[in-house]
Automatic annotation (TrEMBL):
Residues 410-895 form the Aconitase/3-isopropylmalate dehydratase large subunit alpha/beta/alpha domain. This is Bifunctional aconitate hydratase 2/2-methylisocitrate dehydratase. SUPFAM superfamilies: Aconitase B, N-terminal domain, Aconitase iron-sulfur domain, LeuD/IlvD-like. PANTHER family: ACONITATE HYDRATASE B. It holds the Pfam family Aconitase. Keywords: Iron, Iron-sulfur, Metal-binding. It comes from the Bacteria. Residues 8-163 form the Aconitase B HEAT-like domain. Residues 177-406 form the Aconitase B swivel domain. InterPro entries: Acnase/IPM_dHydase_lsu_aba_1/3, Acoase/IPM_deHydtase_lsu_aba, Aconitase/3IPM_dehydase_swvl, Aconitase/IPM_isomerase, Aconitase_4Fe-4S_dom, Aconitase_B_HEAT-like_dom, Aconitase_B_HEAT-like_dom_sf, Aconitase_B_swivel.
């Protein structure tokens, strides 16, 4: 018995004890050993080896897939005989391998001299869509050389028979409801951040969805309703807020969907999810990737009085009344023809937005990838044959309004649109394929992105991309065994694929664990860019950025494109003047509070682009606003910047890109050098007046306009998870914004955290300046609660060292990170000292470091969801309140939330982040 196979069997035993099946095979050496045991008809492991080969080997471009495809080829050619795998069955197995080596084998066979084998191979090829340039080039060459089989394949592709011959979407889909939670459901509930290390092991990761009790209840519902599919519901809330998290959708599909193939282990598709207030936009994209359905239930509405006014409760919140019940166990029917949701014969709601022609195609094809690649294959085949491709797919929706100007996002989409009617100006609502400029992959979703790239048989980055980056920030805090096992493998894969990587697989340059959004913000050197990133906080202050699931990131990396409707925009402008003691973070929170107030509690930002006229702030400072728009449930955000401000931001970006080059991070394609050249070109365009900074047309149309009155912001604003709200649906949202005075200087704070993507260099300088102030007043600094400080980037630390601030932070720190001796275990207890942590996400991510259970945390972070930064303990709920840096620092020093008087005294003379609004068009 081989030691490789023996090791695998030991792992099988370990997994069985955890209630898990054998881990899917992706390695070539193990599969070669398994094949050897299949060939040996007397081998004691032959039967199990056959099962593993047929049912438990990962497809695509994994090393194992290459070995599997080659062995199946040998069986088809008669070079090997396996009784259980006939040539016909071998073709069937190849048809489920999704591209890469399997496509090469099928083309080899289709272009072979054996006509019988060639025709069988051709029939299988006609069902495949994951072909790349090398594959299509072979078919084109064969066709031009007069090969009849190649012509037959291309004619089938031109008709898109790979799609038209698929079964139609069933007219009726019966579902049984399961309420996963009341209120907004964060993707952390579906795929907890602290289990990020297991995401690429789909079956293992599935064990962490919601709770073991919920999994049992879902399983019981499936048994009680074998003809129905379980639909996961966010009652009185939005489903999938916080992040796209492909692993969350994968888990939902694993428990409630259907297998994508009998021969691909633990890859399920077609989940059905719903929310009273619909599905978070980026989560909906992930649902589309898996051919699922996302439903806006609208099953609760605001109660009105006889005069039509909204009835408010004692807290000033609208009173909700139930329109119809979706209590767990309710059986409903989705009719895909009438596009309605029914309870028996009773029509409940219209589902047109859930079942658009495009979404129905995704459902029919088992996911959006197949449609994206299918369209490219059809176009290629028609062009090769010199014919016009028939209209098979739903035509792209092109909305054009005569005489109406363009918003900023409409301008960017029009510039980057691919395959639209030439000369046609498109407005919001249009479905568009767009060229992507920058792509970011982060380290806790990156392994899944790598898997997706392997599954879609991609081997090299799209040459049309300006640049792409693989971060190391989400696993920066603790270099534990899980990180040591996963991250080097990820960096090697992405480096070879063509990305700039935070860690050098060869160990030449110093690891850069900078927060991904900060790096992408510097890599974006054109305000007309489209950015796709594997994180909900992919919100740049230049260009327009969309947080996406790991699969959409993979698609953008492989094709250089993305598909989405042009979103509506909400215009945000400012008036008045910031008070001296107010920080820009307070303006950010006040924007959300004032918006809700102006629109009677309706979140007009949800699902739309926030066009924020914030032109006097540099990119780093403006990023604080765009970053927070993820918590406003916006789809994206755009900063309208003044020419001189944009030029200065680009100069800063250039200097940081040069630092990356100096570290040795550029690749053979000179991506970073190319970005500096593009920045220089953009600066020249702005200076010459040839192409000024992006701004909307004066006659652009917006869904809504919000005016933020800076004069109304009189004190620090805090986003509170409101964990004791009697209405469960109101807890853990980002909509409860309170001023400092609300807390009366009494609420205890157990830990302060200054870090995450929301802070910039000035925030770290504020920490230093506040410590100096306290020392000047008292002669010493004493912390009544721990203060954890994690700079977002190494550049910030270098600049703070040069300016003398880092030395002052070191003076009062009880712990300072050491890159030569990184932490190998997560901290579980904190002392009342200052911790200087390694650049990266730290507590904000919650996958490695957390506050002590039950703590009340005051943080500059973006996340206040239950269990993210801090978990509950018996008798005490964990709370993560979000505030500006000075509030956090003072709270840690005092061990409680300060009074407004204490706060004003503490920040006197400190240069807080200030903002002077410009008059928007």
């Amino acid at each position: 018995m081989s030691s490789i196979y023996n090791d695998y069997l030991l792992e099988v035993v370990e997994r069985k004890a955890q209630g898990l099946n054998p881990k899917p095979i992706d390695g070539a050496e193990l599969l070669e050993e398994i094949i050897a045991q299949i060939k040996d008809t007397q081998n004691e492991h032959r039967e199990e080896s056959l099962r593993l080969f047929i049912y438990n080997t990962l497809p695509g471009t994994t090393p194992a897939a290459g070995v599997k495809a080659q062995f199946l080829k040998e069986i088809i050619l008669g070079q090997e005989v396996v009784a259980e795998i006939t040539p016909v069955f071998a073709f069937e197995l190849l048809s489920h391998m999704k591209g890469g080596p399997s496509i090469k084998v099928l083309i080899d066979l289709a272009l072979s001299e054996d006509e019988n084998i060639a025709r069988q191979a051709a029939e299988v090829l006609k069902t495949q869509v994951f072909l790349y340039d090398a594959d299509t080039a072979r078919l084109k060459a064969a066709y031009e050389a007069g090969n009849a089989i190649a012509k037959d394949i291309l004619e089938s592709y031109a008709k898109a028979e790979f799609f038209t011959k698929l079964p139609e979407v069933p007219e009726e889909i019966k579902v049984v409801t399961y309420i996963a939670a009341e209120g907004d459901i964060s993707t952390d509930l579906l795929s907890p951040g602290n289990q990020a290390h297991s995401r690429s092991d789909r079956e293992l990761h599935g064990k962490c969805m919601i709770s073991p009790k919920a999994q049992e209840e879902i399983t019981a519902l499936k048994a009680q309703h074998p003809d129905a599919q379980v639909m996961l519901v966010a009652e009185k809330g939005t489903m999938g807020v916080g992040s796209s998290r492909m692993s969350g959708v994968n888990n939902v599909a694993l428990w409630t969907g259907r297998p994508s193939s009998p021969y691909i282990p633990f890859v399920n598709v077609a989940p059905i999810v719903a929310g009273t207030n619909g599905i978070s936009p980026i989560f909906q994209t992930t649902v589309d990737v898996t051919g699922g359905i996302g439903i806006d239930l609208k099953n609760w509405r605001k109660k009105t009085d006889a005069n039509g006014n909204v009835v408010l409760n004692e807290n000033g919140d609208p009173v909700l009344e139930e329109v119809y019940s979706v209590a767990t166990g309710t059986v409903l029917t989705i009719n895909t023809k009438s596009k309605k949701l029914y309870n028996g014969d009773k029509e409940l709601i219209d589902l047109s937005k859930s079942l658009t022609p495009q979404k129905l195609e995704f459902i029919r094809a088992g996911g959006s990838y197949a449609i994206v690649f299918g369209k490219k294959i059809q176009t290629f085949a028609a062009q090769t044959l010199g014919i016009t491709a028939p209209q098979v797919f739903a035509p792209a929706k092109e909305v054009s309004v005569e005489g109406q100007g363009l918003t900023a996002v409409e301008k960017i989409f029009n510039k980057n649109a691919v395959g639209v009617t030439p000369g046609k100006v498109l407005h919001a609502g249009s479905d568009v394929r767009v060229k992507v400029n920058i792509v970011g992959s982060q380290d806790t979703t990156g392994l899944m992105t790598a898997q997706e790239l392997e599954a879609m048989a991609a081997t090299v980055i799209a040459p049309t991309l300006d640049g792409a980056y693989q971060s190391g920030c989400h696993t920066a805090s603790v270099w534990d065994k899980k990180a040591q096992a996963n991250i080097p493998k990820l960096m090697k894969f992405m480096n070879e694929f063509g990305l700039i990587t935070a860690r050098d697989p060869k160990g030449v340059y110093h690891s850069m664990t900078d927060v991904i959004h900060k790096v992408l913000n510097d890599m974006t050197v054109d305000d007309w860019s489209i950015i796709i990133g594997g994180d909900s906080h992919t919100r740049m202050s230049k260009g327009v950025a969309f947080g996406a699931d790991s699969g959409t990131v993979a698609l953008a990396l492989a094709t250089g494109e993305a598909s989405m409707p042009i979103p509506e925009s909400v215009k945000v402008t400012f008036k008045g003047k910031m008070k001296e003691h107010v920080d820009f973070r307070d303006v950010v929170h006040a924007t959300q509070a004032q918006m809700l107030q102006q629109f009677g509690g309706e979140n007009v930002f949800q699902g739309r682009v926030i066009e924020v006229h914030i032109g006097t702030l540099l990119a780093d400072q403006a990023f604080t606003f765009t970053d927070w728009t993820a918590e406003m449930k916006a789809k994206a955000s755009i900063c309208i910047s003044q020419d001189d401000t944009l030029i200065e931001s680009l100069e800063i970006a250039k200097s940081r890109l040069q630092i990356m080059i100096d570290k040795g991070m550029d690749n053979s394609n000179g991506v970073l050098k190319g970005l500096i050249e593009k920045a220089n070109k953009r600066i020249a365009e702005i200076k010459s007046g040839e192409k000024p900074a992006l701004k909307p047309d004066d006659n652009a149309k917006y869904y809504a306009e919000v005016v933020v009155d800076l004069d109304q912001i009189d004190e620090p604003m805090i986003a509170d998870p409101d964990v004791h709200n009697a209405d469960v649906s109101k807890r853990y949202t980002h909509d409860t914004i309170r001023d400092l005075t609300y807390y009366g200087g009494e609420k205890k704070v157990d830990l302060g955290f200054v870090g995450s993507c929301m802070v910039h260099k000035d925030d770290l300088k504020i920490v230093s300046q506040m410590l100096k102030n306290v020392e000047t007043e008292k002669g010493y600094v004493e912390f009544k609660a721990p203060l954890v400080v994690a700079a977002p980037t190494y550049n910030i630390i270098d600049e703070l060292k040069a300016e003398g601030d880092w030395e002052y932070l070191q003076k009062y720190s009880g712990f300072e990170f050491n890159d030569l001796l990184p932490k190998t275990t997560a901290r579980t207890e904190y002392q009342n000292i200052l911790y200087l942590e390694r650049p990266g996400c730290n507590l904000c991510m919650g996958n490695q470091e957390k506050a002590a259970k039950g703590d009340t945390v005051m943080s500059t972070s973006t996340r206040l969801f239950q269990g993210r930064v801090v978990e509950d303990r018996d008798g005490k709920k964990g709370e993560s309140l979000l505030a500006s840096t000075p509030v956090v620092v003072l709270s840690a020093i005092l061990g409680r939330i300060p009074t407004i008087e204490e706060y004003k005294k503490a920040v006197k003379g400190i240069n807080l982040t200030k903002f002077t609004p410009i008059l928007a068009n």
